[in-house]
Amino acid sequence: MREKIELLACWKLAGDLVKTLLVRFRVGGDLRFLSHQEMMRVWARALARSGVSLHFSSGFNPHPKISLPLPRHVGVISEEDLACVQMEVAEGGALDGEDLKGALGAQMPEDLRIASIEVIDGKISPQPQGAKYEVRVLDGEHAQVGINNLNAKIATGEPLLVKRLVDVKKGITQTRDISEYIDSIALDGCELSWKTKIKPTGTVRVEEMLELLGLKQEQLGSPVVRKEIEWKF
CB of 117 within 8 A of CB of 21? Predict the structure, then answer.
């Protein structure tokens, strides 16, 4: 308990003003294989080393207010991602995004690059609205057949049913219709791209999209890349 109190003390400054850092970043290389929880630990350690005075939750077991609002699928490269970090600043204190970018970027692993940091007064919780993904396929004609078949089902209103594992220990699956989450699909030569809609009820996962298109991992010529995310602030 004493160690926890001392740790909290070193995070906090004298003031009570809370600001939110909107950190835009890229994830690639071996880091793309980290799970969401593992990525959260990367952020927590880097922020601790950078000296940022984090804002903690209240209650018996306080934790730093860090979030990655749109979890990245394991194995996917993210060209444009967002982290939200709440920090405490002494009244009258000033923050510079470029200075924070340098301090935090110096503590990040090589495969995570900070693009920019925007400092916002108060607390905000950005909500993802949509995302664009790209991948290179080895056989463009085969991919086009999959796109045509999928578009035909969408045009007729046929449900696009997928099975999701909802309880790993018990092996329980759930069947869901994910047709409402597909925005568009395009193919340029061997460059496949698709846009998804993200709603409070969910979205379509990368592996589900590839399955609906009839594509297996060995038929891909590159890792899947999340190119863009649409946010509502």
Answer: yes
Kindly report, residue by residue over 187-197, the tens digit of the pLDDT. Answer: 999 999 999 99
Say what percent of the chain tops pLDDT 70: 91
Supply 46's token pair. 């880097």
Which domains are seen in the chain, by residue range? 2-121 (3.30.70.580), 127-232 (3.30.70)
Of the candidates 220, 52, 74, the one whose C-alpha atom is nearest the C-alpha of residue 134 is 220
Q: How far apart are CA 212 and CA 2, in angstroms?
A: 53
According to DSSP, the residues that pair with 66 across neighbouring strands are 85
Which positions ≥6 away from 102 have C-beta within 8 Å? none
CB 137 within 8 A of CB 221: yes
Q: Which residues contact 170 (CB under 8 A, 6 or more apart)?
A: none
Q: What share of the chain is helix, strand, coil (3-state, %, to 5)?
A: 30, 40, 35
Tell me the CA end-to-end span of the chain in Å, nearest whole number.
Answer: 37
pLDDT tens for 124-162 read: 999 999 999 999 999 999 999 999 999 999 999 999 999
Cα(201)–Cα(184) distance, integer angstroms: 19
Q: Which helix (H) or strand (E) holds 206?
A: helix 206-212
Whole-angstrom Cα distance, residue 23 to residue 52?
A: 13
Dihedral in degrees, nearest 10, Cα atoms 94, 99, 103, 109: 130
Q: How far apart, in whole angstroms, are the C-alpha atoms of residue 12 and residue 163?
A: 45
